[in-house]
Every structure is written in C-alpha cells, then in structure tokens.
Specification:
231 residues; Porin; globular; twelve-stranded antiparallel barrel
Length: 231
C-alpha cells in the first residue's frame, strides 16, 4: 500500500471515542455527555512522522462532533496538513457485560495534497460494534465501513477488530487488526496507562502491515484528556 493510501486508511479509522486511543478500531462509546475531550498522538515511521490533535465534544448526550487536524512529514519532502470532521451517534450504548453499536461518518481533507476551492477529501462511514465480558476486563470492538479515496477515486470496504484487556486498575493492553478490501491487513499492539483514572491517559503502540514492507511499520505515542461534564 502506498504512503497516501495508508494515511487515508489510518485517518478514516483512527477516530475519537472513549476508547479510541490507541485504537484504530472505534468502539460503541462516546465522550462524556455535556463535555469535550482531546486526543493527541505522534506516529513515527522509518521515513516519516505524523502529529495529530483531535478535540471531540458531546453537547447533547448522543451526538459527538470531532474536528481537528494533523501534520505529516516525509523525509526529503514538504510537510502536508490534513483536517478531519466526524460525527458519531449510538443506537445502543455499550454496557458492562453487554454490547452496543452506533454509526459514524465524516471527511478527511487534504488541502496541501488535493488543492481546490472546496477542500473536499476522503469520505467515510462505518458501524462500530462492541462487546463487554467479565465486568469489562475484556472488551472487543468490531468495525465495518466504506471509504471513498479522493486521490485515487477508489471505493473501499473497511474493517477493524480490536480487544482491550484489563491488566490492573491503571493499565490496559490492546491488540487489533484492520484494513480494507484492496490491501493486506495491518496490526498493532500496545498499552495505555491512566495517570489520572477517567481523566488523563498516555499510551504507546507498535504496528505494521502484516505481510508488507517494513517501511509501513510505526510506533505511536498518545495523550488523552477527558474532563468531567462541563454543562
């Protein structure tokens, strides 16, 4: 998969939710009703790196809005900037020892890569489904969606499968695989640590294309801030 296609896939799937960082696969949870959160991270590849910041707000309880952006820099090339907008709603919120599902849709814009008066970029929609087991000690997430890549005109079916595994009160291990119907799958694994439970989280992962070039391997490091209810 080329660099632009990899960026498009990761950006379309790496969307904010209560358990999104460090996941690419989204879950059937939301930011606290009446509040906002901030997810930020760096993803480092052998020949490039990205930095992202994605604020998300849930003002009314079941409609979460995200608008943010990132900067990517390949070795020997000019940096590019990308912007993301997304909304997400739940039809059945995830509960302990239960399951939930919802719908998310949005657009990733590449003004530096695809200039134009409307700055339209990749359009995506997907369904997140989550299952809780053993009092939330194991939580599994599944995504199925569609993506239109503006750069190539491709229509892709996207998918993701991930798991959270509770190690201690503050430490959670994660593992996942994700991809689309036009390329080989990717995987990543890592952990997140709650500095302040339910408020401040840091995380780190390692990932790569399952059967592809080592140029597509990455490390990521993230910070997530989730304040209490504002409204």
């Amino acid at each position: 998969m080329n660099r632009l296609a990899l960026l498009a896939l990761l950006q379309a799937l790496a969307l904010p939710a209560l358990a999104a960082r460090p996941f690419v696969t989204d879950d059937a949870r939301m930011t606290t009703a009446g509040s906002c959160q901030l997810e930020s991270w760096m993803r480092v590849y052998p020949e490039s790196r990205e930095v992202w910041a994605l604020p998300a707000c849930n003002p009314w309880g079941n409609l979460e809005f995200t608008f943010g952006g990132g900067r990517a820099k390949n070795s020997g090339e000019n940096a590019t900037r990308d912007y993301m907008f997304q909304f997400k709603t739940l039809f059945r919120p995830l509960e302990t020892n239960g399951w939930g599902w919802g719908l998310a849709a949005g657009s990733v814009q590449h003004p530096d890569i695809n200039p134009g008066p409307n700055l339209l970029g990749n359009t995506f929609v997907y369904v997140p489904i989550s299952f809780s087991f053993a009092d939330d000690k194991v939580v599994l997430h599944h995504n199925l969606g569609w993506l239109k890549d503006k750069a190539t005109g491709d229509h892709r079916l996207t998918w993701g499968v991930g798991g959270e595994f509770h190690v201690s009160q503050r430490l959670t291990a994660i593992a996942e695989a994700f991809g689309d119907n036009r390329s080989g799958p990717f995987w990543q694994a890592g952990a997140r640590f709650a500095i302040v439970p339910e408020r401040v989280q840091v995380d780190a992962t390692f990932g790569r294309e399952l059967n592809g070039s080592t140029d597509n391997r990455w490390f990521s490091f993230g910070l997530r801030l989730t304040p209490d209810r504002f409204l």
